[in-house]
User: Fold these one by one.
Assistant:
Number 1:
Amino acid sequence: MTTQTWFITGANRGIGLEIARAALGSGHRVVATARRRQTVVDALGERDDVLALDLDVTDKPQIAAAVDAARERFDGIDVLVNNAGYGHLALFEETTDADVRAQFDTNVFGLMDVTRAVLPLMRAQRSGRVLNLSSVAGFTGFAMASLYCASKFAVEGFSLSLAEEVRQFGIHVTLVAPGFIRTDFLDPSSMKLGGTSIDDYAAFNDALRGAYLPMNHQQPGDPVRLAQALLQLAAGDAPPLRWSAGSDAVEMVDARLGALKAELDAARGLSASVDGDWVGAPAGQGGAQRSA
Ligand SMILES: NC(=O)c1ccc[n+]([C@@H]2O[C@H](COP(=O)([O-])OP(=O)(O)OC[C@H]3O[C@@H](n4cnc5c(N)ncnc54)[C@H](OP(=O)(O)O)[C@@H]3O)[C@@H](O)[C@H]2O)c1
């Protein structure tokens, strides 16, 4: 097996830390980045195969500096893991514009900025893997997660499209879409809850918080096993575009696919009624002019 260089955001705890440990355990080098570099050193120790760096993904100069440092130390990046992220869990009307922008600054724009900085290296190498942490929340909606789901849906659209653009350079993009994984994700140290409260939503809010909050550190998915599976996927010649992590994720994706298919089938006639008379007409009679 060839030794690869992995560049991981949010590598100090949770899924990111377990991916770093798994990559090191397989003999790879890791650029382990975190908002506070010391937290990575505390978790992984000082070692030659780890470059621990300060990186807040919302800080563009830090992104540039981290990618430069990775190139200088390890001469390239083979696998980029865009893992840093958090959930703002609140009913939409109880969030603010600042909450929306902060959620997107980290989960979407930060991920895009890191990717933009790393891609030239991978293009020059004519190889690379980009693993973007999405979620089951990037495929289906949940009450109390409109901001988080919107951010992960954005990650999905971005990643599926980017995959089409960079495949020609030997760069593969994979969406990693976990269900509920046992990390600090639902802990007050990570998750953000709504600020304002609206009487009309009070009972609904209580019910939702009552469902989510007790799941903190009780989630079914194991981040260590997720990291091992990811390593296996990254080693394959044809990594999937989207991979669901955990049986709960598979179940929720199955349910959403079934519902989508049922809705599509129920309205096929109405959908087709929008087609112009030129659809199916021979070229020259309007058929060739049809565009999406
Ligand atoms: N756990 C789940 O159930 C689950 C399910 C689906 C998807 N995910 C996704 O998996 C990823 C990792 O989450 P996790 O479960 O490991 O949660 P976690 O234990 O809360 O870890 C989140 C990590 O992201 C980092 N982070 C947050 N904002 C950052 C920023 N602006 N710049 C750099 N790092 C930042 C945190 O750093 P600090 O320590 O500095 O806060 C921490 O290292 C996230 O993208 C999350 O959306 C998780």
Number 2:
Amino acid sequence: MTGARVAVVGIHGHGASHVRNVARLAAAGRAELVAVADPRGGGDLPPDVRVFGGLDELLAATRVDVVVICTPIQTHVPLAELAMRAGADVLLEKPPTASMVEFEQLSAVVAETGRALQVGFQAQASEATLKLAAMMAEGRLGEIRGISAVGKWVRKAQYFQRARWSGKRRLDGVDVVDGAVTNPLAHATAAALLLDGSTGVDDVRSIETELYRANPIESDDTSSVRITTSRGTPILIAVTLCAVEHLEATVIVHGSEGRAVLTYQSDLIGDTKYGRADLLENLLAHRADPGVPLYVPLAATGGFTRVVEAVRTAADPVEIPGELVRWEGEGLERRPILLDVEKWIDRASDELALFSEIGAPWAVRSPGESS
Ligand SMILES: NC(=O)c1ccc[n+]([C@@H]2O[C@H](COP(=O)([O-])OP(=O)(O)OC[C@H]3O[C@@H](n4cnc5c(N)ncnc54)[C@H](O)[C@@H]3O)[C@@H](O)[C@H]2O)c1
């Protein structure tokens, strides 16, 4: 048995990890990597894998069951549509779409073609995330005062220079929305929404955004966002790519009977380690038996996409004054460090408050920040 015929689209960035994952499943006889598509050509691939410059050529030449899409955000919808109309199921990287309109378009294609589409929010398949959601639903943390998502990350010039779309809000007239909240730290928001049971498009009542940047980019690298879900939970996102040191992101649940910290990249609640299901394996299991639910169907990213839409339509990020930023490194290693950003993020998280509400020195209210 060789298993499902899988193609990976976009293989030179994060897509390399998808190629390795399909190779792992191939070794177990559960999948076969038949082809890849990337305008930059092939790379370190198993023998017999066909290489194409684009997905259209690939689909014209090869029959595939599943297409894994790991390309720039603005290419997600056309590529996913192409794959589903050709009869393939799709694992699409996050964020699935750059706008609400695109989300609706893609949802319509899923409905019309009847294909399965899983979104690459791997933390949603973590037993730690699901266990914490269950603990909350059972009332084990008491009444939930709110949820916060904290990201203190480091990104250097190399990250923003690796591709044309990096750090862009729009490119060539098309929405990209590649900012800290919507792309690198997207899992934090998505996990917080899942914990609240608010993943659907109608599960979000309001979104306030405060977007800032220290890097010479279009999009935000330091932001606070408050989502109020339909059930009334405040979810406060406080993130930066300009930290002193790179720490794992956390999602913190503030309950009347206690506080729980989810470190989703390591599948931890507090210090307790959990397992994690693989999203491609889950998609293959769902193909074999539609009774097996997907961990992250497109519909379960509707609430997250409301946040993308709020960031997309917000005013451009406000540049942080130079006196609050220290620059380190040269060339591709160069990076900004925002003064005391860790302290302000922790306060925002504890108080479920936006940067401007706690008086962070870079925070000024600007028009168009709410939706
Ligand atoms: N799930 C995760 O934890 C995670 C981590 C990193 C990135 N991502 C997501 O993966 C996607 C890609 O991010 P990246 O950082 O690897 O981007 P990247 O720009 O570094 O790499 C993208 C790759 O896609 C190729 N490509 C571009 N346009 C293409 C097209 N039309 N058809 C085929 N290939 C094309 C590029 O040549 C490149 O090899 C994004 O959606 C990103 O958010 C997810």
Number 3:
Amino acid sequence: MKTEVNTGRVVTRFGAELLVENTEDNPDIPHVRCTAKRKFDTIVCGDYITWHHNEHGNASVDDLLPRTNALTRPGYRGRPRTIAANIDQLVIVNSWLPETSWDLVDRYLIAANQLNAEAIIVMNKSDLAEAHATEADWQAMKNYEEIGYPVLQLNAHTGEGIEQLKQMMDDKTSIFSGRSGVGKSSIANRILPTSDIAVGIISDSGEGKHTTTTADLYRLENKGYLIDSPGVRDYALGDISTQELADGYIEFAQYQNNCRFHNCTHDHEPRCAVRTAVENNEISKERYLRYLDALHTLKENSNS
Ligand SMILES: Nc1nc2c(ncn2[C@@H]2O[C@H](COP(=O)(O)OP(=O)(O)OP(=O)(O)O)[C@@H](O)[C@H]2O)c(=O)[nH]1
Ligand SMILES: [Mg+2]
Ligand SMILES: [Zn+2]
């Protein structure tokens, strides 16, 4: 048999079997099922691989190609579990019900910074704003915009805001992340006209039911990719340094060189330029307080 090497991108995996998009030019088959040996257990949705047809009429994985980055989540016993790889953009999906945790949004923004990925903040279910939005919520959203993040209001049922989001996903691999029940799969269905991804219900209290259980990759018309991922209860930060944490608060950057101590954590240190900026209302106090909470959690975890 002639040795052949094909390239592909992992759509999803079930155990040792991968569904792979054939990324060869003009492929005769658009998707292949590949079996992966144990050493390829680390391959996830979004990975690029090489593969070949084997003598049994199946296909097998030859190699995992280098990644630009990978998104992880704390899994069993807090061990990091990789969710998806080669991500250009994190789409942080929120809704009015289930309500938004701005803490969680901050942590995703820190993760995006670590991944060297762009971030978009989406507020879905605009029809529920009137009943559930508070002044503090609108203020938080305005603040994210002021520090440079795009904030989009969406309604997956009416299609409001979908076109704008779609355009921002051109030529990129974007992953939809957020709590269960916020409408990630509903938005994905709007963006992908031919898809029919299962959508769940939410309980009266607003909790989602974890309808999506695996990260799956979809190709967009405009060469981009969308990864729909399972909802989270929470998103804990992995093993990052206090400097990496502060780097995730991008509005601190223009001040932190003026702190008296070069290793200032912007907490209790004297002559901290970040704290002064908070006192002068140049940095949002709410964001700063969330930063301090995250900093103290990080320090507690590193001491235990
Ligand atoms: N009112 C309203 N409901 C919406 C909107 N978008 C989605 N929903 C509903 O929200 C519920 C959850 O939607 P899903 O798309 O399954 O949410 P998900 O984020 O994918 O949830 P998981 O897969 O569990 O993480 C469904 O009942 C949707 O119909 C919206 O714009 N407005
Ligand atoms: Mg879903
Ligand atoms: Zn400082």
Number 4:
Amino acid sequence: MERRNFLRLSATSAMAVAIAPSLITQRLYAEDGSLFQPFEKVQLKDAEGNPIKASALAVEENYVFNYPYVGTPAIMVNLTSPAEKDIELTAEDGTKYIYRGGVGAKGTIVAYSAICPHQLTHPQPEMSMFHYIDEKGTTKAYSGGAFVCMSHLSRFEPKQGGKVVGGPATQGLASIILEVDAEDNIWAVAVLGPVKFQDYFDAFKDEFKKFYGNRRKAKKLTKEETKVQTLKNFSADIIRL
Ligand code: FES
């Protein structure tokens, strides 16, 4: 099981994570100040229930899945080159955290919470205003190779832990910590960095009712597995400004 993304937690926390990550849902701070929150360990599967294989991911495709909650979208991308390791980032409250890099054979697979930290724009079935733009793609404001929120054009660097590098957002994307096991299966295990989940749950009550039945159902933790689909399959209209 790949461990590169695991942080140097305090001895007590590290032991607890190793034994039962699904039992730990509180926010943890590692010895080095990293902001790290273990959630349920969840396997990424396709619509038919087949495991997603890391080596089969298309390069620069947006893959949407919900984690760590039933109603919180994340996007996984297999980049053209490895993500950088040991990137120090700073949340808007000043908390430092360390991004350890991507997973997969070449360290090119990354995943981030797809909720913009500025004003919570996120992919929806009707359309997506938030997604990864491939390296050959462009927007009016930016060249590609980055996550861009089309609402106010914040840009986030996928190879540097989701660091904000443009626009009005004041902090980066929360990273979804992935593991790839010996059979090439992909698991989501934790979230690194500042999250906007509570603000998101407070803001989109009608959306949760429409797509999940109600907000209570959207706030449930994903358990055991989460379905993965391409953004072009998930969203009817992918907006690029
Ligand atoms: S909501 Fe994303 S940049 Fe404003």
